[in-house]
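Proteins fold reproducibly. Next comes a concrete instance:

***
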Amino acid sequence: MVMLLRKDNLKFLTVVTDCLHLLTLGHQESKSVMLHCNGPAELVRIIQSYSYEKLLWTATRVLKG
């Protein structure tokens, strides 16, 4: 899923980040896999690159969890 964060479609990125949130919610192993795949860095890149509010909110929610 983390590799899909490199796409440019805003609504697709929003869906992917929401899926990542659901996958990592309360599941430490999934969080470790996302960390190992450079997920947080991709999420920070998304936050710095886009202004679509729903995407920013979802990406922030994944980082917070």
